[in-house]
Amino acid sequence: MSAVSVAPAAPVTASRRWQTRATVFFFVLGAVPRVWAAVWDQNIYWPDEIFQTLEPAHQFAFHYGILPWEFREGARSWLFPGLIGLFWKLLAVLGVSHSFGLVVSVRLVMVGLALIGVEAGRRMAVKLAGPTAGLMAMLMMLFCPLEIFFAPKAMTENASGVALLVAAHLALTASPRRTGLAGALAGLVVFFRYQNGLVLVGLLILVALRDRRAALRFMLAAFVVGLAGGALDWVTWGSPFKAFISNVRFNLTNASASFGTQPVTYFTEHLERSMGAGLGLLLLGGALAMSRARGLVTIVVVYFLIHCAVPHKEVRFLLPVLPIALMLAGIGLADLRLPRAPQSTLALGVVLSVALAAHALHPTQRDFGRADNDGPLWHAGEDYVRATWEVEKKVDLCGLALVGNSSTWTGGYSYLHRNVPIYFNSDSLAATNYVIGLHDEKLPKEFIRIYAVGEYAVFRRPGGCRVVPNRAVWIN
User: Fold this and answer.
1) Which long-range contacts (CB under 8 A, 24 or more apart) does 61-67 make?
2) What is the mean predicted confidence (pLDDT) over 359-365?
3) DSSP assigned state of 440
4) Which long-range contacts (CB under 8 A, 24 or more apart) does 173-176 make?
5) Does the residue 262 lie in any domain?
6) Is residue 209 part of a domain?
7) pLDDT for 308-358, tens place per residue?
8) Same domain, 125 and 187
9) How far apart are CA 221 and CA 59, in angstroms?
């Protein structure tokens, strides 16, 4: 039995036309909540989505930003934030001058990439098991609550998921000549998140089992891209592969455990909480897909088990393989002995979509991995960044104090986009004329509340700002 088998092409029939129409309908339906979230929901799930990507990108593009320790000590590659920074430079040339336009544009690009991943997964499923499998795979990817929620976020994990799915599609179902492109893409995203190397090695093994010459192309392309990533570290950090070496050293010393440790059951618990019945569909479909794509199922399982063994866990760590897992589940579900009439296919699609998306309507932060918070997930933390957008409009702004909240749960310069000092305490109010804090924030009487959004408010005092040394620009 092969690791991946390809289904024969099917003739165009009335059933296929129904499936094409259903595919278009569900694709548009699945795109709507992602676009909505990109534009109208500015929630912050985890500080990394700001300070590991957007803030370094802002520093690169506009020469001011708040850098975390990883980007001061050389523990992360500049590849992903550098790409965002280049995109922002282009937008600035085109006249985009407000942080709303910059941030939302990146979020819409991420949504576009996520939808490209969905289409790649659908095509891969069609190649492996036929058009019904393509429809089922698309539904699993489109309506999985985790995929809906994370799609707009500028995070290396969900960007990796799209790229690895496309790489798998090119490596296993496209022409052998495209395996070089697959290797280059898989090698590239290793510098997004080094754990992606697990998937790269797995894909290389699967390609080698099918065609050794194609495997050589895959390996050489990944190697060349790897050298380029090391050269980028050399340019940005002063020595080749410095970020990779620093990251490995950090994890070998178990330093990541300082951010918290979780039990082995953490991922299964939060997948059940965030996906509900969708987790059962994922497991059932994945098991049934073994007959058609044993190798890919093995890659996903190995990736999952290794991450279960790591002390520090976050739900987002699974995002690099989640699209592949959902695609495989769609393939397996299509093999169930169900009626094949077009109406049955459409009805099954509706039931499957509702069952998956139900848990995306009113999730809590705890459901998606924030064990310390039972508050709603959608719009979480966005009041603070929307208040920052209000301050950005003020022409007299000369200094801003962000108080009443942890510094890591702010939008930084990505959501301010004004080159003025930012302070994270109320000890430097002489250097600020605007403050964002709680409604009842204890401030000198000259600070007057001028704007409120949710539990936070913007305060202003007349006059200018004097310079205060030791400006607080670092996030640890």
Assistant:
1) 61/85, 61/86, 61/88, 61/89, 61/92, 62/88, 62/92, 62/413, 62/417, 62/419, 64/413, 64/419, 65/412, 65/413, 65/414, 66/412, 66/413, 66/422, 66/473, 66/474, 66/475, 67/473, 67/474, 67/475
2) 87
3) T
4) 173/4, 173/6, 173/123, 173/124, 173/127, 173/128, 176/211, 176/213, 176/214, 176/217
5) yes
6) yes
7) 998 889 999 999 999 999 999 999 998 876 655 555 666 777 777 787 888
8) yes
9) 31
Average pLDDT across the chain, whole number: 90
Longest Cα separation, the chain: 77
Location of structure tokens 């410095």: 242
Among 360, 393, 422, which residue terminates a domain? 360
Q: Is 213 exposed, middle or buried (0-12, 13-18, 19+ CB in 10 A)?
A: exposed
Helix-strand-coil split of the chain, %, nearest 5: 65, 5, 30
Full residue range of the structural domain in which residue 471 is found: 382-475
C-alpha distance from residue 84 to each of 89, 228, 474 (Å): 9, 18, 20
In whole angstroms, what is the distance from residue 343 CA to residue 22 CA?
Answer: 10
Please indicate, yes or no, if residue 354 is contained in any of the structural domains: yes
> Is 29 within a domain?
no
Structure tokens that stand for 315 in this block: 């739900």
The secondary element (H helix, E strand) that includes residue 350 is: helix 342-357
- CA 445 distance to own-chain centroid: 43
Is the pTM higher than 0.70? The answer reads yes
Cα–Cα–Cα angle for 183, 186, 189, rounded to 5 degrees: 145
Count of domains forming the chain: 2
